[in-house]
Amino acid sequence: MTFSLQGKTALVTGSTSGIGLGIAIELARQGASLVLNGFGDAEAAKAQIAALGARVEHHPADMSRPADIAAMMEFAASRFGGVDVLVNNAGIQHVASVQDFPPEKWDAILAINLSSAFHTTRLALPHMLRRNWGRIINVASAHGLAASAGKSAYVAAKHGLIGLTKAVALENATTGVTCNAICPGWVLTPLVQKQIDDRASQQGISVQQAQENLLREKEPSLQFTTPQQLGQMAVFLCSPAADNMRGIAWSNDGGWTAQ
């Protein structure tokens, strides 16, 4: 399959490392200009994108703040004319039982993992609809389709993100704008590595053993999905082959949700 995103601009939230950066790199390989976002090493991330010959900018919006999100979307419009491919990837995690879950952590997780996608989407849609072409890709999770104990806020947010995906897809079903979700299983990002390290510390086992246990509990393949694989899924969803794929939650989870 050959096609180009030349002349298109992609904005990927939470893209200075991990899944977001992997997706941004693959979109850049297809010719898209990139707006990166995140609190990681922005200059290093920009350098990786620029090395592919793509135009790239970074905006440090705090995705829990609607005013920051609006400023980021205005920044993308001023630099590139608007956002053609929106990837809502920013996310945080906290693990605790419901009765012990800090309310401020609940609010932050829902703000960043769910509400931010609403704000970026509502601001991206007018430009996409004017052009009658756009791609909204929400990075949900296996936890958007199945729950795990101790992750109530994350599970609620990711289930909500899939619901938002379906609603946006239906509202724009007769247009050239599509909305779909990608649902990874375990991806060895800094967020997941912290969970592994915490497990190892709490259980008095090696990090390697904690990693194996994590995979064995959920993922029959016993393999991590890679950011590159998720980036290639995003590229596919931007392709003509996906023109009529609308409101789908695409699993890439090593069999997690097939059980």
Automatic annotation (TrEMBL):
Domain Ketoreductase: 8-176
Highest taxon of source: Bacteria
UniProt keyword Oxidoreductase present: yes
PROSITE patterns cross-referenced by the UniProt entry: ADH_SHORT
SMART domains named among the record's database cross-references: PKS_KR
Single GO term (MF): 3-hydroxybutyrate dehydrogenase activity
Keywords: Oxidoreductase
Top-level EC class: oxidoreductase
Gene Ontology process terms (BP): monocarboxylic acid metabolic process
EC number: 1.1.1.30
Pfam families membership: adh_short (PF00106)
Similarity field: Belongs to the short-chain dehydrogenases/reductases (SDR) family.
Protein name: 3-hydroxybutyrate dehydrogenase
Organism: Ottowia cancrivicina
